[in-house]
Amino acid sequence: MAFVTRQFMRSMSSSSTASAKKIIVKHVTVIGGGLMGAGIAQVAAATGHTVVLVDQTEDILAKSKKGIEESLRKVAKKKFAENPKAGGEFVEKTLSSIVTSTDAASVVHSTDLVVEAIVENLKVKNELFKRLDKFAAEHTIFASNTSSLQITSIANATTRQDRFAGLHFFNPVPLMKLVEVIKTPMTSQKTFESLVDFSKALGKHPVSCKDTPGFIVNRLLVPYLMEAIRLYERDFQTCGDSNSGLGFSLKGDASKEDIDTAMKLGAGYPMGPFELLDYVGLDTTKFIIDGWHETDVKNPLYQPSPCLNKLVAENKSGKKTGEGFYKYK
């Protein structure tokens, strides 16, 4: 009996040690072929990972693959300036590491990591992960690239809360070095360390944060952007470009042009807040601030902006629509 007990304890100890080992991510499934998903797929494939990129239609995926190829050629032109042939080989090798699919459930059975980069809608994300949870392998880690939603709320849709975390990349993914690795109260240390190692393998610099609204960057950045809007819109009844007849003459504390110039020359920022708002997308900023406002109505940092709401309602969301706080040709 003692022998059996020792054997059992030895077996349990061995099993525990094995389960504590970090997951070495080799195969990645990226859900969402938009700008962020395509960027994540590109950097993963370019660093020796095999990738499946998933979206709803073949047309979306064809567009994503084309965008990835164009981005890779830009990278290769700079990286292999002295050796165009090697650059061409790099592009082809990277593209060959990416396959596409319209059926997420059929491709997650053998993946090490699922990274979700779809619409910022909690219900849609929950439905996706709840479905994939049934098909993914036991060891598979799930991660969301959400920039504003609570990771815990998404993880709770699955039975693998210990293998669920946030993996927040920044746009454009191939160029931005930062990745925020978000650990929920249920995320295991093994999962967290596996994602940190994966981020480093992509050539990124991971930082850690708890599951707090906006994590690190957006928690600081979004209130800053909103305060810039308030500085501009203070005492305004409407907002827009007064020079084009879309708004009033300046009654705020400062013009958007002067605010942008001040932050670039005074704080050393590469872009002013209004330039950055237009680049990120006014609709994206509105979505984040509205979500935070719902969870903490009295917080002055999370108060909505009439000016921002007006522009988004008029489909003036920034560079992607041709107009936001500024006009774009």
Automatic annotation (TrEMBL):
Pathway entry: Lipid metabolism; fatty acid beta-oxidation
Functional description taken from the UniProt entry: Mitochondrial fatty acid beta-oxidation enzyme that catalyzes the third step of the beta-oxidation cycle for medium and short-chain 3-hydroxy fatty acyl-CoAs (C4 to C10). Plays a role in the control of insulin secretion by inhibiting the activation of glutamate dehydrogenase 1 (GLUD1), an enzyme that has an important role in regulating amino acid-induced insulin secretion. Plays a role in the maintenance of normal spermatogenesis through the reduction of fatty acid accumulation in the testes.
Name of the protein in its database record: Hydroxyacyl-coenzyme A dehydrogenase, mitochondrial
Positions of NAD(+) binding: 32-37, 55, 120, 125, 147, 171, 320
Domain 3-hydroxyacyl-CoA dehydrogenase C-terminal, first and last residues per copy: 250-328
Gene name, Swiss-Prot/TrEMBL: HADH
Binding-site list for CoA: 71, 78, 147
Domain 3-hydroxyacyl-CoA dehydrogenase NAD binding: 27-212
Keyword Lipid metabolism found: yes
Pfam entry (one): 3HCDH
Listed PANTHER family: HYDROXYACYL-COENZYME A DEHYDROGENASE, MITOCHONDRIAL, PTHR43561
Catalytic activity: (3S)-hydroxyhexadecanoyl-CoA + NAD(+) = 3-oxohexadecanoyl-CoA + NADH + H(+); (3S)-3-hydroxybutanoyl-CoA + NAD(+) = acetoacetyl-CoA + NADH + H(+); (3S)-hydroxydecanoyl-CoA + NAD(+) = 3-oxodecanoyl-CoA + NADH + H(+); a (3S)-3-hydroxyacyl-CoA + NAD(+) = a 3-oxoacyl-CoA + NADH + H(+)
Keywords for the protein's UniProt record, in alphabetical order: Acetylation, Differentiation, Fatty acid metabolism, Hydroxylation, Lipid metabolism, Mitochondrion, NAD, Oxidoreductase, Spermatogenesis, Transit peptide
Site annotation Important for catalytic activity: residues: 168
